[in-house]
Amino acid sequence: MRLTMFFLLALLVVSVTATPPTDLRYKDRNQPLGVRIRSLMYQMTLEEKIMQMVQIDKHQANAELMRRYSIGSLISGPGASPNEDHRATPEQWVDMVNEYQRGSLASRLGIPMLYSIDSVHGHNSLYKATLFPHNVGLGCTRDPDLVRRIGAATALETRATGIPFVFAPCIAVCRDPRWGRCYESYGEETSLVRQMTEIIRGLQGVDPANSLPGVPYIGRDKVVGCAKHYVGDGGTTRGIDENNTVADWNEMMRIHMPAYFDSVAKGVSTIMVSYSSWNGVKMHANRTLITNFLKGTLRFRGFVISDWNGVDRMTTPWGAQYPVSLMTAINAGIDMIMAPPNATEFLRLMKSHVENNRIPMSRIDDAVRRVLRVKFVAGLFEQPLTDYNLIPEIANQRHKDLAREAVRKSLVLLKNGNDNNNPLIPLPKKSSRILVAGSHANNIGLQCGGWTIDWQGSSSSNLTSGTTILSAISQTIDPSTQVTYIENPDVETLTRDNNQYSYAVVVVGEPPYAEQYGDNTNLTIPEPGLSTMNNVCSRIRCVVVLISGRPLVIEPYLHHIEALVAAWLPGPEGQGVADVLYGDYGFTGKLSRTWFRRVDQLPMNVGDSHYDPLFAYGFGLTTNPVA
């Protein structure tokens, strides 16, 4: 009898999952959004609903898996390019995404999947895409219109490769530069980060005047955006990544939450939850802030997604109580789980939680409704597949010019001459001989920093296409000026030849890094850059161009340096650096971060009682273009 009942139940499941849809209103673009969502959800099985709530790594997927389980979303994780080839062409990206999508369209209900990627400073996983300065530099521009245009260019180039969902922008308010993600933040001050949420309208399009607050909007050739990491990720103790943010409610609302007010108001489609904790409670478990405040008070109508393995990392060791962590995260209000260890095990656990009333069906329906809302609004049901038509937009001259503009506007001039009457910048284009030195002068990978082609970036000089600062200088100066490039000149050479140089440009800084691998307690300029800077600048009039994701210790060496430029992580358009060094454009950038004197002052932000900076928040010397 038991075997007979089991057989009948199995037949019932097979018959339900094989039954084609009878109500096709969800496929009709002329139907109201609510009607389309209800039409589809009414016909979905529990299994189909649960699998819309998962985003799996593309390495775990194939077209058959997408068809069989109707998986909601895929992600290209760090370095996950077609065939694991970091030089894969845009056409190969399109073909890869389409192959997965065809599997989804062949599922019972034909629900398209949502393919995602980290496009955090341009389409940074695509070889030869247009790349922009990282956010710490963009904050120094104080130009919301610029970041909106950058968002639009990023959206177009990402969409050209078939990808409609990006994990940007990061709207963290970084309160401690020891944090390895500080360069992903626009700055330390809340009002500045709020201004820069304008990038959402570049990524997703400008929401119509009659749109409802909190409801996602995605325009043609735009992408689904994602504000991250909710919330307080930039305020962790000692700047330790994924650590605990200690703050009362008023401080959280005053510093870390306001940029989410603006993001929701501008129609951001998704919000990613932070790995970090707030007063000891993991954000992935924080129902008060996710369900009650974000979805309730702010009336956010998009979907909330976990971070990579975010559920696993709710416990130490990771994954120690995964079933409990999963139940807690879903009940806290997370709608989509990114990169669970195993998709079929995710399905089994979720079904068990629902069937045993540990997760209410209303919570499942809320999550699925939100996911489908974003997919409908993004136009995936009408245009699930991508052709090659937008590929010519990738790295077009208009976008490269935009990146170059962003570079020159992001640079901050911190010192210019030993006295006000004798500035070194603008540098003369015509001189007898100049020296260019430093590890970062002739290296595209070092200019770009982390999240470039791969998660941690690379120090490879041919990581992607672009113009190094050395090449930009060589192209800008008068042809009669002789340029000597020595990466790390020794003292003997400098002592012998110092009188031969009119001036030196020294380009040094940090290696690439991302997330916890960038956490740093000393914030010194790494060797051999520090020695190169001191050796050159103590013997030759010099400009130091500092390539870094944050302020570094510079005060002990400042007396040797005649001019100092904070170039942050400018990306591959090095010509933007030469534009302002040589006076084709003036310096206009203002610090988005306080430049400390010593690391024992940290954390130190504008307005603090112990505020004693080397260069204050908002500081930046200006120059005029040379006529």
**Helical residues, percent:** 25-40%
Q: What form results from the Cα inertia axes?
A: elongated
Q: Using DSSP, what is the number of strands? A: 17
Biggest sheet character? 6 strands, mixed
Number of helices: 21
Q: Give the rounded overall mean pLDDT.
A: 96
Structural class comes to alpha/beta
Cross-sheet strand order for the largest sheet: 12-17-16-15-13-14
C-alpha Rg, in Å?
Answer: 26 Å
CA(first)-CA(last) distance: 94 Å
Low-pLDDT runs of 5+ residues are: 1-16
Write the layout of secondary structure elements.
Elements lengths: L1 H17 L14 H10 L3 H6 L2 E4 L5 H7 L3 E3 L14 H16 L8 E4 L17 H7 L2 H17 L4 E2 L23 H7 L2 H6 L21 E5 L13 E2 L3 H8 L1 H8 L4 E4 L3 E2 L2 E2 L4 H11 L5 E3 L16 H11 L4 E2 L4 H13 L5 H17 L19 H14 L1 E5 L16 E5 L6 H5 L20 H8 L5 E5 L4 H7 L6 E6 L19 H9 L4 E6 L15 E6 L6 H7 L46
Parallel strand pairs: 1-2, 1-11, 2-3, 3-4, 5-7, 6-8, 7-10, 13-14, 13-15, 15-16, 16-17
Antiparallel strand pairs: 8-9, 12-17
Describe, in plain words, how this protein is organized in 3D:
This protein has 627 residues and is an alpha/beta fold. It is 34% helix and 11% strand. The chain is built from 21 helices and 17 strands. The chain has helices spanning 2-18, 33-42, 46-51, 63-69, 90-105, 135-141, 144-160, 190-196, 199-204, 249-256, 258-265, 287-297, 322-332, 343-355, 361-377, 397-410, 444-448, 469-476, 491-497, 529-537, 575-581; strands at 54-57, 73-75, 114-117, 165-166, 226-230, 244-245, 270-273, 277-278, 281-282, 303-305, 337-338, 412-416, 433-437, 482-486, 504-509, 542-547, 563-568. A six-stranded mixed sheet has the order 12-17-16-15-13-14, sandwiched between helices. The longest helix is centred in the N-terminal third of the chain and has 17 residues, at 2-18. The protein is elongated, with a radius of gyration of 26 Å. Mean pLDDT is 96; it is low at 1-16.
